[in-house]
Amino acid sequence: MPLIPPQIAYLTLWPTTACNLACAYCYASQGEAPQTMDRQTALAALELAGGHDGPLHVQLAGGEPTLVPELIEAVAQWASQRQAPTRVAVQTNGALLTPALAAMFKRWRVAVGLSLDGPPEVQELQRGQAAQVMAGLEILERAGVDFYVTAVVTAASAPHLPRLLLMLAGQAHARGLGLDLLTCRGRAVGGHAAMARPDALAGAASRLAQLTGWLNARRTRPFVLRELERCANPARSFARPRPAGPWPCIPRAGSTPAARP
Fold first, then answer.
1. Which of helix, strand or coil describes residue 210?
2. Residue 253 within a domain
3. How many domains does the chain have?
4. Which of 141, 143, 230, 261 has the fewest CB atoms within 10 Å, i.e. the most exposed one?
């Protein structure tokens, strides 16, 4: 009896392994020369994964995908022509965002995830280029592009998570926040980034849950705190380590917006 290949519902593509940042905790950086995916390879992967009539989510991660915007648009165009429900999401550090990129995201309905660890001083400490990232956030806001924020939680950033949420509260198109605990690999080993203590996580979780309720009582469109949605006890969900994956800047964007019909 012939084997029936599994139906792929989720495909992650790395348009490039290159990145414009050098995050203090990045565990993808192994000193290897950056590689960039060509259009032919991306389309071949899409055809292979999308060769069925079921829904498909395509996540663009890396590396920093906005270094190759033409590949993002090629993937989004392919998705728009697929007859089954398909959505494309990009996870970006935000430092290279431009009005043209934001317009492209909106035109092709690309879901956007933004990596942002905290207020500017925390972002500068852990990831760098805080001013450029904040400018990128404002570009998305002005363009009317919804975005979801993912923050890596460390000992340095945990006390500032409530300030991050309050900062996002002023952005009408900020739709949610998700937290990933520090993974001690790559630059995080022997570096400046350290894991947050459980009591600091519990305190941040409690305050974030309170602020989310306060915020949603005042917003027309709800703000989603990922961990609060996942677990009735937010303090416990924050204390769970993030599963190790092959790259750090990997899928969270687009997990909530509706798929393209």
1. helix
2. no
3. 1
4. 261
